[in-house]
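Regression test attached.
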Amino acid sequence: MKLSYRLRKDYLGILFVLPVILGLAIFTFIPMGTSLINSFQVWTDFYNGATEFSFDNYVKIFSGGDSIFVNSLLQTLLFTALDIPIRMTLSFSLALFLFKDRTGVKFIRVLCYVPVIIPTVVSGVLWKNIMNTGNGYLNLILAGLGMEKVAFFSNETALVSFLFVGMFGIGSSMILWISQLKNIPKTVYEAADIEGASRVQSLFRITLPLCGPTIFYVLITSIIGTLQVFDLAYMFYDSTNDSIYFLVVYIYHLAFGSIGADINMKYACALSWVLFAMIAFLSGLVFMCKKWVIYGEDYA
Amino acid sequence: MRKKSSALWYVFAVILILIFLFPFCVMVLRSLMPDIDVWRYPTLLPSSPSWENYYNKEIMPNLLGQFFNTMTVAVLSIIGTVVSAFLCAYGFAKVHFKFKSIIFAVTMASTMLPSITMRIPLYMIYSDIGWTSGTLKPLIVPAYFGGGAMNILLIIQFIKGIPNSVLESARIDGANELVCLFRIVLPNCLPIATLVCVNTFLGVWNDYSSALTFLADSEEKWTLALGLYKLTAGYYNDDGYVFWINRQMAIGVMMCIPSMVVFGIFQKSLIEGVAISGVKA
């Protein structure tokens, strides 16, 4: 009797979460399996692929024979290494600046969040125009200040320009920081104040350590997200600025075609698995450091 | 001293606002420029501001069709997301069953997988069943299968706030799980349901990479985001090749309006939602 009740419960629970189980199977695991199998095959064309098992794609990747891949891998890693620390520092500073309640502070927070809600395509079109070499607003301002015009999307400058544009999206991490900062009990600061701690000391000894959970979360999601940088990069890449030819853009071109790149879906699958391994490895590294993160229960 | 630092703070705040609103202001200025301004140099302000780019006859018919497509995707995805995410979240939050923690962990972990790894084989699969031309299904159907791990997580956090004792007493009175879900949990979850709807709408409205992958071949099914993207390459008409940044910016401003309105109305819960998914994940 008891057993049949338990069975019925299991059955019921599974029934409730059935959509997500099916969803994972159909839209995650089957595609991943297909992708893995395809990555071990050689591409001929879309309708008649060779089905023999072969390491060719991976040999091509790891032998370094594909110079476009090597370049895009290096640029992606460089971009990730620059973008994450800058973005975290800026958004954290912004949060420190905006987290205390004052008249109008909520309004300012919302305004800082506005660039996040502008649709990606719109901001792509917009920034391409603002940073246009001919009569973009930035260059007009530079000219007004008596400086020389800058080609913001040439091979040398594109990576920096891309970093700059991305910084307008720090509003979303700022929200996370603010809610974490509000969770820190005021008494901790009062105690530090009585002990004679300076502002800088309490920032580095109290605020930052107690923001551990958010640092951890932002770091993990940024690693996963930044290594896959695509949307804006796809719009800004124009075949002259290889410095922003990031890995996913290259994979996308290989899979779905572009001017000047041959379609090779199976090689693209292999590359996407290499990217997956890289993301898993790096986030695994961060997870191993998790034991340094202090969670709320430990100090409250 | 205090007054001085406060004044300094407001000076910084104004500078910040100017920086963050600068791109948006440029967009509005550009959209108000008549065609002759586009190639004039230098063009900081429109020579004679006008709204004509907002109802340009060449672009309007396409735009209406794309708006209709976008709304179709949005409405159908919202329904799918809310229904299936609620079922799953309720199952995870309030029903005990075998393998629950494993299924939950896998669901959450799946958000970490790079989407490009799935996108290529999904394109192959969709193209086999004819979903890569003339249909919006690739953008809609996935919403009916769980509605995204983040939405499930948000709803779980909310449902957990409903005391178990309320559900237990309902069960003792003979209510089954479906009655519990629809009569007790759902009515209490309207705020989070609204948040999920708004999030889904913004997601659909902003999404261009999956539209680019799955809809690019069938122009009559383009969404607004994809349409605007395709327009950035310029287009051909009777006069030959044209590329009007002022018209693109007008579309951009129009595309921002729904996002801004929705965000303006729901900003409090949206911002809390971002915070919850960050703190609890």
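Expected vs. actual: identical. The longest strand of chain B covers residues 235-237.
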